[in-house]
């Protein structure tokens, strides 16, 4: 009987610690913002999502300080994004992960693709040697492609486990005027900052920020 009580107490204490850790790490639950302590140049991880998403992201980066240390994640077979990055003035290490989904994929294929993308992302974030040599990000910057969802939640998991301490910045696509994209809805509660480019969205979603059209 005594052993059972001790086991129950240990379980309750463990669950309490997990809840406290989640509250500390997930922005929607956090009681107050905890800014990271930066004792070295800011390291930014960026997802290039192909097509218009890549174009918008490169336009944003052209307005930022190039003294930041950039790392990029591209999806498999996305040679276009790699070429556009090479032609830009922004430089950084490039990692490749499986594509989460293709246009026209059904529900089952989308789930399978998202799982493969998540596993590929975790492999890069946890096991890649170049990553461990100083590319662990202070900030994750994403703007809406499907692969940003498993990537962002990978960062959330690593933050909770204490293996990372990264802030997530989500910028909604310019094409979204009245309603968030599916990626935006899935990341709305876990993004530290959620930027939209139309006042209609800022009025509808209280956690968003509106600074005009940025791309």
UniProtKB/TrEMBL annotation:
UniProt cross-references to Gene3D superfamilies, sorted A to Z: Glycogen Phosphorylase B (3.40.50.2000)
The cellular location(s) given in this protein's UniProt record come to: Endoplasmic reticulum membrane; Nucleus membrane
MF annotations from Gene Ontology = N-acetylglucosaminyldiphosphodolichol N-acetylglucosaminyltransferase activity; protein-membrane adaptor activity
Keyword field: Endoplasmic reticulum, Membrane, Transferase, Transmembrane, Transmembrane helix
Which Pfam families does this chain map to?
Answer: Alg14
Recorded topology in the membrane: Single-pass membrane protein
Q: In which domain of life is the source organism classified?
A: Eukaryota
Q: Enumerate the Gene Ontology biological process terms.
A: dolichol-linked oligosaccharide biosynthetic process
Q: Which InterPro entries match?
A: Oligosacch_biosynth_Alg14
GO cellular component annotations, sorted alphabetically? cytoplasmic side of Golgi membrane; lipid droplet; nuclear membrane; UDP-N-acetylglucosamine transferase complex
Kindly report the protein's main subcellular placement as a broad class. endoplasmic reticulum
What is this protein's function per UniProt? Answer: Involved in protein N-glycosylation. Essential for the second step of the dolichol-linked oligosaccharide pathway. Anchors the catalytic subunit ALG13 to the ER.
The subunit structure is: Heterodimer with ALG13 to form a functional enzyme.
Please report which protein family the annotation says this sequence is part of.
Belongs to the ALG14 family.
Recorded protein name is UDP-N-acetylglucosamine transferase subunit ALG14
Species of origin: Komagataella phaffii (strain GS115 / ATCC 20864) (Yeast)
